[in-house]
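Deliverable D2.4 — example input (structure tokens):
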């Protein structure tokens, strides 16, 4: 399943339809987003988003979605192609911000020889990299260039990720094969079974 999910997530799915309906001016709907995405070894991701709005846009957002439950329901309805767990959304009135955190199942997909994490949207720019941690930026014009949404995303790939590449908006990486304890037990049992079969077929020497 193709995952196009986090760059400009709230802004595109929730905010822009509101902006179009209200006819807000350019200086009133500039949106800045920061996101941290931590991917585990099986491809699930822990996501934390913080979106900061200009005061007028923030007030109109709260009028359109007076409860965070309404935001959560709207968000999940628009992204029915993916599965979320433990979603929490809250308003931060003192800073005109919206905060969200959730777990996304199967965010990264195992392609056999490598893993792929599809950020969605347009190409992203790699600002910095430190080991398995990447900082990406995206600036997306909206309404024929009359506005913009800017996002900075910090992506933490699993420990041991190597050969990390960015192809458009897709992060590709490799993970060393990690043998689980269950596999070790299975191999040990298989070895014992093989030894037993050999012994049963060896003729006994009689004195």
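Example output (designed residues):
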């Amino acid at each position: 399943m193709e995952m196009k999910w986090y760059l400009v997530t709230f802004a595109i799915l929730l905010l822009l339809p509101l902006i179009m309906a209200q006819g807000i001016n350019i200086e009133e709907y500039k949106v800045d987003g920061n996101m941290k995405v931590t991917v585990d070894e099986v491809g699930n991701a822990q996501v934390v988003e913080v979106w900061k709005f200009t005061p007028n846009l923030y007030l109109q957002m709260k009028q359109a979605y007076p409860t965070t439950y309404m935001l959560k329901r709207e968000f999940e309805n628009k992204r029915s192609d993916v599965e979320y767990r433990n979603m929490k959304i809250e308003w931060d009135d003192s800073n005109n911000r919206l905060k969200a955190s959730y777990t996304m199942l199967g965010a990264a997909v195992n392609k056999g020889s490598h893993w792929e994490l599809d950020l969605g949207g347009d190409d992203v720019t790699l600002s910095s990299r430190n080991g398995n941690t990447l900082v990406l930026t995206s600036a997306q014009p909206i309404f024929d260039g009359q506005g913009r949404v800017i996002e900075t995303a910090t992506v933490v790939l699993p420990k041991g990720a190597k050969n990390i590449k960015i192809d458009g908006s897709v992060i590709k990486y490799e993970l060393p094969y990690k043998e689980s304890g269950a596999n070790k037990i299975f191999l040990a049992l298989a070895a014992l079974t093989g030894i037993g079969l050999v012994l049963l077929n060896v003729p006994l020497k009689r004195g």
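Confidence is low (pLDDT under 50) at residues 1-8.
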